[in-house]
């Protein structure tokens, strides 16, 4: 096990997809890479590479280190010291599942490091408990669209293959919005009418994804459980949710807890530039600077490699920004 080096590439994710609050997730083609080594001697070293990672601890309080220790503990292994390197293209605290990708990366990397004693299901249970909901972690772990339910002690899921014609356009505001803050904006009670609205929308959305009926997405992606309460936290969001389908989107939602806004688009849509401009201009009109990014649903979960010299070279090139995908 000494000097064994494992590298994992984990997708970002979008949670909720509108009405599926804490239940629906989709993996996206934006990634975090984590590399872990058990040093033959020496102590824990954590290196973080990528933009906007300031403030993330590089000692044993780091999320990746702590999550790895949970794997070793669950497997009855003792690995107190670790060399960890992380590179991420996923912006933090924007609603693109950065914490879930770090958790899934740490779980799968640590598990591979000690010979994969834990099943994917066991990792899913640990991850759901850590995040408090299974939507982002399920998507990052299994890839594709993941429909999940968690009763507080056990999570179950069904994975749906994303439609090949789906493209994703996200508008990522320059400000951060923590999940904690966005959850505090939610009411403790909602009306029966709104609950019924969301059960209908979410069920229809899952059926639309499963059957490939993209025409239903706009109708089914509407939400009354969390987006109306979070709208005040993202200036311009209400207008985007109301009007994005008039500018070529198949559907639109707040991505996870926000502030990123996400649209689903047919890959052959002739209105992609119009939609892109609509998102940027609407946020801009409300004083919000945002970066738009075209992504694809990511059909795969983590890619794990026990590293060779060539892969180490690739990781170093990524860290230096020479390779992006
Ligand atoms: N690679 C990482 N290493 C350590 N900590 C991380 C890492 N990525 C994220 N985090 C922690 O997770 C926090 C962000 O989690 P949060 O749930 O607020 O946002 P998010 O996961 O980006 O968005 P969302 O859950 O809405 O999709 C960061 O502030 C940081 O504390
Ligand atoms: N389902 C979660 C995703 C963010 O972690 C929420 O909307 O709060």
TrEMBL record:
GO molecular function list: homoserine kinase activity
Domain GHMP kinase N-terminal: 62-144
A Pfam family that the UniProt record links to this protein: GHMP_kinases_N
EC number, as in UniProt: 2.7.1.39
Catalytic activity: L-homoserine + ATP = O-phospho-L-homoserine + ADP + H(+)
InterPro entries recorded: GHMP_kinase_C_dom, GHMP_kinase_C_sf, GHMP_kinase_N_dom, GHMP_knse_ATP-bd_CS, Homoserine_kinase, Ribosomal_Su5_D2-typ_SF, Ribsml_uS5_D2-typ_fold_subgr
Protein name: Homoserine kinase
Gene that this polypeptide is encoded by: thrB
């Amino acid at each position: 096990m000494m000097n064994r080096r494992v590298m994992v590439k984990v997708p970002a994710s979008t949670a909720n997809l509108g009405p599926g609050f804490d239940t629906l997730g989709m993996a996206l083609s934006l990634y975090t890479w984590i590399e872990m080594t058990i040093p033959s001697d020496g102590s824990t070293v954590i290196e973080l590479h990528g933009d906007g990672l300031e403030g993330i601890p590089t000692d044993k309080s780091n999320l990746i280190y702590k999550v790895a220790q949970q794997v070793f503990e669950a497997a009855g292994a003792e690995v107190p010291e670790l060399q960890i390197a992380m590179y991420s293209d996923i912006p933090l605290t924007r609603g693109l599942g950065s914490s879930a990708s770090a958790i899934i990366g740490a779980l799968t990397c640590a598990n591979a490091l000690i010979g994969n004693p834990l099943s994917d299901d066991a990792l899913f249970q640990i991850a759901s408990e850590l995040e408090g909901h299974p939507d982002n972690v399920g998507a990052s772990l299994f890839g594709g669209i993941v429909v999940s339910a968690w009763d507080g002690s056990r999570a179950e899921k069904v994975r749906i293959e994303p439609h090949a014609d789906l493209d994703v356009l996200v508008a990522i505001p320059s400000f951060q919005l923590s999940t904690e803050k966005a959850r505090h904006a939610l009411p403790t009670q909602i009306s029966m009418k709104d609950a019924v609205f969301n059960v209908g929308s979410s069920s229809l959305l899952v059926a639309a994804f499963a059957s490939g009926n993209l025409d239903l997405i706009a109708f089914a992606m509407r939400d009354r459980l969390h987006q109306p309460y979070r709208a005040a936290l993202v200036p311009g969001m209400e207008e985007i949710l109301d009007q994005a389908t008039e500018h070529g989107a198949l559907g639109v939602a707040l991505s996870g807890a926000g502030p990123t806004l996400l649209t689903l688009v047919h890959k052959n849509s002739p209105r992609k530039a119009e939609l892109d401009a609509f998102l940027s201009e609407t946020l801009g009109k409300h004083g919000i600077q945002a970066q738009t990014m075209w992504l694809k649903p990511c059909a795969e979960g983590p890619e794990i490699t026990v590293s060779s010299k060539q892969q180490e070279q690739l990781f170093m090139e990524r860290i230096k920004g020479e390779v992006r995908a």
